[in-house]
Amino acid sequence: MKIAIFGGSFNPVHNEHIKVAKGAIKELNLDKLIVMPTFISPHKKNAEIISTEHRLNMLKLAFSSEKAVEVSSYEIDKGGISYTFETVTHFKNLYPSAKIYFMLGSDMLENFPTWKNPDVILDNCTLLLTERRTGEFNDDALIDKIYSLYGHRVERLKVYGETISSTKIRTQYKLGLSLDGLVPKSVKDYIVNNSVYESDVYYEYIKKVLPIKRRIHTAGVITTAIDLAKKLNVDVKKAELSALLHDVAKYEDINNYKGAEIKSDLPSDIVHQYLGEYIARTKLNVTDSDVLLAIKYHTTGRANMTMLEKVIYIADLIEPSRKFQGVEKLREEINKDFHVGFKVCLEEIIEFLKLCGKEVYSLTLDALKGEIYE
Prior knowledge:
Blueprint lengths: L1 E7 L6 H14 L3 E6 L14 H11 L6 E3 L2 H5 L5 H11 L4 E7 H5 L7 H7 L1 E7 L6 H12 L4 E7 L4 H9 L10 H9 L7 H9 L2 H21 L3 H10 L25 H12 L6 H8 L10 H12 L8 H10 L1 H18 L6 H12 L1
Helix pairs in contact: 2-9, 4-6, 8-11, 11-12, 11-15, 12-14, 12-15, 13-14, 14-15, 16-17, 17-18
């Protein structure tokens, strides 16, 4: 008997989860695939997780037609932090003669040695790597690392997952954007009918002032900023709010804001960063100075930028809907080493502006100088 455990927050379950699950069932000829939402993940202790009832209900809807799938509430019923070594031990005791796989992505495999009791996990199951096409991780090196540390081979799933995150889905929903192609219709209807993800005053304001195309960009900036913030130990909530409001003034007329003290000789394409900070501070009552500065310098950068400011600057530049020539190179540089990549991004932007005959604002030059001499 062959069983795979597919765990996660599933907040919400999406089409890539379903694709990978079906691929595992077919490729490994599984007798059972146990899909199991965590109660509290040790890797996402501060994450904003919706109720267990909603996550279970959406999973049951998503996998209702898959006979080999069992949606398990084991970790939810157990409560507390969901440690993988306890989960795989439980199912190995339940199915002692079965070969048990535990499915995980490259990012999780990279951090596997830091998990609680990794040796117990490997004594009770085989790790099954579900890869993505991003190229962010050297999966061969990760597999070799696990073998060298524990003497256990990691198996690969040949079904590649695409980069769709639950963060993106939640963000798009709160921005009033379509979820088509991201989640099954049954899950989309459930989210809508049960108001699963509630927006706040900031999301509601952005929905009113930005057209769909700019909201798509904003959703990409939010998702990218959150991902970067998690990797760089930057405050995720501040990153989300800064990204959400970074273009709040994109379509505003500065003449309608007489109290905004903004220089009249600024290049037209950077006025919105200063006006955005003013609107966030005076109209939306944002008081966090870190967030306000991230909005204020998201286009030009400046000398001595904070990590939050850098995250928003980069997220605005490389978010998924950006299609300019060379953007893939910049994404690769940021993925390899954020600090080196940040300098490369500044250099590329300055070179691009010069080639286009556009003015390079002094703050951007100051930002690059700061990176060179840091």
